[in-house]
UniProtKB/TrEMBL annotation:
Its main location: membrane. It holds the Pfam family Photo_RC. The keyword Transit peptide does not apply. It is found in: Membrane. Belongs to the reaction center PufL/M/PsbA/D family. GO terms for molecular function: chlorophyll binding; metal ion binding; oxidoreductase activity. This is Uncharacterized protein. One of its GO terms (biological process) is photosynthetic electron transport in photosystem II.
Amino acid sequence: MHFYSIREEASVDEWLYNGGPYELIIAVAYSTLIVTATTVFLIYPISQGSFSDGMPLGISSTFKFMIVF
């Protein structure tokens, strides 16, 4: 993905045509997935006291996690 800086373009119309502000919105939208995964798999277990109490990986352990909590 290439971010088109408004300084690189000849005019505001060209910047908008090349995707200008929408590229920033897309980058923020995709970064929320990374933030969510980090929160669920790293931050949440630390707040629970240990990584073993956090969200487990796998189908059966996910259902066990849902039943226990």
